[in-house]
Amino acid sequence: MTAPEEIRQSPFNVTLRRLMHHRLFLLGLGLVSIVAIAALLAPWIAPVDPNKLAMRFKFRPPDGDFIFGTDNFGRSLWSRVIWGARLSMFIGSAVVLINAVCGTAIGAAAGYFRRLDNILMRFNDALMAFPAVLLAIAVTAVLGPSVNDVIIALGIVYTPRTARIVRSSVIVLREMEYVQAAVAAGAGHWRILRRHILPNAMAPLIVQLSFLFAYAVLTEATLSFLGVGAVPPTPTWGNIMAEGRQYMIDAPWIIAIPGVALMITVLGLNLLGDGLRDVLDPRLRIQS
Amino acid sequence: MTVLIEATGVSKHYPVETGGMFRRTTTPLRAVDNVSLSVEEGETLGLVGESGCGKSTLGRLLIRLLPATAGNIRFGGTDITALGGQPLRNVRRSMQIVFQDPYGALNPRMTVEDIVMEPLLIHGAKPNADSRAQVSDMLSRVGLPARALERFPHEFSGGQRQRIGIARALILRPRFVVCDEPVSALDVSVQAQIVNLLQDLQAELGLTYLFIAHDLGVVKHISTRVAVMYLGKIVEVAEKRALYAEPRHPYTRGLIASVPVTHPSQRARGRAERQRLEGDIPSALNPPSGCRFHTRCPLVQPICREQEPATREPAAGHLVACHLA
């Protein structure tokens, strides 16, 4: 028998145990997992080409043949929504990745090297002054309407927000006494950032990135819906809803089903983010 | 006795923006103002003063944790004021610091072994069996069990964390250690253990301490000499016995009077001759003219408001900056 004190109480294990007891986090994780698994398994669970036209099956409501029904061109909505999930998840992850890398780099540079702070943050403020959707439209207008361009646009829109959060953590952490102790021991800037500052700045960053995933998915759908995202017939949820909008009265399932999928994804990500925030960064709970 | 570390005319000014939105001016906050101080090899110099008087800043200036605005610092005979890069790193090996807050001083995401080993790695050691042996040896010297190695700081009490902080400071075998209020945040029962540990380690490893504290009680126990600081200036330095028996600066007398007595019978006797400190420490942004202590001094004279007192040496080794002493 192992004595309880033999279990390694690393901060990571403690966090994991608390998350596993947070019910809303688990619900969020479940919802996001459903969407993520559907996205990963798309070629197997939705083998019908999402762009395959079949005019004789158009406007079929959900039934035994077509689980989610068909749209105005007779395309299987099941296929289109599942492949849309794949795109949403891909775009969301790519934007989160860009943000994690660029936001951390810019935020850490601004917070740690105070001389860079003014230059980087004024530029940041300028980008943050635009409404997110408007700025994304402007960037896609310049770059073009492909999936990759949407990812770059959303990366540019959200990176300043991430950078600001990382910067504020770094400013607090660089004054901590363990950082001073590392300076006194002769540690260089790179070691201090990598070993002492960034690992301790991760908690608010992870919380931010989970919410950012939701924003990215939502904004991508908005861009598609407005016709400035990935071009039709690319099966994004926004595109499906934009086309379904015209037939909302007669074939409401075309717009409702991708809408519900979007809602489940965003709700799941928000619950996930709330849970992470409660566990990783309890002080933030008071503000909301 | 040889001088190990010596500060001459050292100042630390922080620019502070004052005034409204449109008429900004910067006023220097004189945290440490033209201070000269030396610490002799093997001694413990106690540095006392109220919160905000600049004692921690002075300690950090001495070991180059903060850049000085003016003055110079010599360590073991070499001027280290403007060192940088590798030469500074080499000097840092010999000068370490123990912090006040045992909770903020240890990285919560590192194990005790990583925390104590890091200074070795910075100075070129590899994380091999030899480094591990040095870390275990240091942990046993500070009185921590070997099973502490794999644990994280949050699993320890305040006193144990302070031991970890001491192990980290001593792993490089420094000659000079700044103890920045190392026991102020601890329970009284634990304070004595840590002070005794610091004394034992000093004897074992031949250390020199600058021991910073905000009251004279702890300092009386551990110090060889004591320096008293007020609002960025050193007002009195003397050998411990001389300072407690014959304090010359009115501020030192006030500090001694504010140490609680240990027995009720001493209370009545002490009360008559006590000069308690009244009021708060003035702002270092706008320090009083002349002698900085004149706003609170019970013996204030007209000259104190006009002229800053020079540091004099009324008895051998006893320095005081007061017109009346």
Describe this structure in words.
Chain A has helices at 11-19, 23-40, 42-45, 77-112, 114-128, 132-143, 147-173, 177-185, 189-226, 237-244, 253-280. Chain A is an all-alpha fold and 288 residues long. Helix content of chain A is 71%, strand content 0%. Chain A has one domain: Orthogonal Bundle (MetI-like fold), CATH 1.10.3720. Chain A has eleven helices and no strands. Chain B has 325 residues and is an alpha/beta fold. Chain B has a domain at 3-94 and 172-249: P-loop containing nucleotide triphosphate hydrolases (Rossmann fold, 3-Layer(aba) Sandwich), CATH 3.40.50.300. Chain B contains eleven helices and twelve strands. Chain B has an eight-stranded mixed sheet with strand order 6-7-8-3-9-10-12-11, with helices on both faces. Chain B has a four-stranded antiparallel sheet with strand order 2-1-4-5. In chain B, strand 4 and strand 5 form a beta hairpin. In chain B, helix 3 packs across helix 4 (129-141). The longest helix of chain B is centred in the middle third of the chain and has 18 residues, at 188-205. The mean pLDDT of chain B is 88. The A-B interface holds A 8-11, 176-178, 180-187, 191, 195-196, 199-200 and B 60, 63, 65, 88-89, 92-93, 95-97, 99-101, 104-110, 115, 118-119, 122-123, 150-152, 154-155, 165, 168-169, 172.
Question: What is the CATH class designation of the domain at 3-94 and 172-249 in chain B?
Answer: Alpha Beta
Task: Write the CATH fold name of chain A.
Answer: MetI-like fold
The percent range for helix content of chain A is: over 70%
CATH homolog superfamily of chain A:
MetI-like
Strand content of chain A: under 5%
Task: Return the CATH architecture of chain A.
Answer: Orthogonal Bundle
For the record, the CATH class of chain A is Mainly Alpha
- Count of discrete domains of chain A: 1
- List how many beta strands of chain A DSSP finds: 0
Quote the beta fraction of chain B.
15-25%
- Give the proportion of residues in helices of chain B: 25-40%
Q: What gyration radius of chain A follows from the Cα positions, in whole Å?
A: 22 Å
Q: Describe the global form of chain A.
A: elongated
How does the helix and strand content of chain B classify structurally?
Answer: alpha/beta
